[in-house]
Amino acid sequence: MTAAPDCIVVSRGPGETRAALLAGDRLVEVIHLRDAEAQPGAIYIGRVGERVTGSNDVFIDIGIPPHGVMETKGARLNSGQSVAVEVRTPARADKGPKLARSSVRIPADRPAPSLLKPAPDPVVEWLTHYSDAIDQIVAEPRSEATRITRFLSSDPRVMHYQGAGSAFDEVDEQIEQALQPTVSLPGGGRLIIEQTSALVSIDIDAGSSSIEAANAQAMIEIARQIRLRNLAGHIVIDLIACRARQRFVKALKDSCAANPIQTDVMGLTPSGMIDVIRRRACPSLAETLCDPMPPMLSIETVAYRALRQVCRDMAVRRMARATLSLMPAVAMLLNERLRPALDEARTMGEIVIIRRADFPRERIEVA
Question: Which class in CATH covers the domain with range 43-117?
Fold first, then answer.
């Protein structure tokens, strides 16, 4: 049985809040809340746009591109009309967020489009779910620790991280591992995880381990990886051929029982694979942080990383002015769509963006 989560780490950076749930030193779940993206559960005052071709859905402008899509369910909506909507699933790739009509009343003095109610705080949701099992909540910078302390009515478990580097450094290492296709298993086996638009395939390789041990260890680790990577939709697990495979189906069901998002272990296919269906609540970790083809960090992820780096360097080196050198696409993003995040970073001091055509995507230089 896996250990229960006992620690929450929260790191606020320009334009983005990252929150991690850990059990001991192992990452259980990580959430990236980006100010420039609509989050599930948030309620907006939207402006009705055109109908989606070939359906009864309509586009809704919520003030954050791309426009969301809402099913009308027979309701008559006029173009330009203001309507309260809740984000059900966030934007994925080139598709806007899926929206649903909200019963929240629109104040007379609020324009459309605008945010009416923010998304639920993941820290509060984790504390509600795990209650007294959480021993500490580590937050950075001090302003974020203060915000959480006030929100939780001076909960003594909240502490401001004051160590070297960032409170998220060890979390970042585990995130990097979770973006790789291969996962090592105890005893010499491994998992190979391949995520496509149609399904997620997980192969088990026994390596130097026995077949029985590899299959058994894989069920525990697959449940962890499904949650950590936020894998969803149709998941197919290729067991190593052995007798009595049904017992591994039960083992996987038991391991997935703690997953807060509905995860249905359907059973064995005629070819002996395990079928899993998991509800899609938000993009996977890879979809959040990477471009699909080829698999590399997205320019958005690099931009947020660059802002964190320049702010950290300015604080440590006590710089009133810094130059931030980046590839042109990342620099353009910061000067345009992510300008509010750049402005937040500039509360540290003057930041000059330098475009370097010779830089690869992930190269960041602060001087």
Answer: mainly beta
List phi, psi (to 5°) of 75: -70, 145
Question: Domain 7-35+120-171, what architecture?
Answer: 2-Layer Sandwich (3.30)
Q: Which CATH architecture has domain 180-278?
A: 3-Layer(aba) Sandwich (3.40)
**In whole angstroms, how far apart are CA 1 and each of 5, 185, 225, 251, 276?**
12, 16, 15, 10, 20
State residue 283 phi and psi, 5-degree precision.
Answer: -60, 155
In the chain, which stretches have pLDDT less than 50?
none
- The two tokens of residue 157 are 């478990």
Distance CA 190, CA 193 (A): 10
Question: Which CATH fold would you assign to the domain 295-366?
Answer: Hypothetical Protein Ychn; Chain: A, (3.40.1260)
Pairwise CA distance, residues 215 & 206, whole Å: 8
Distances (CA, A) of 148 to 31, 121, 159: 16, 10, 10
- Quote the tokens at residue 258: 């703690």
State if pTM tops 0.70.
yes
Specify the pLDDT at position 180: 95
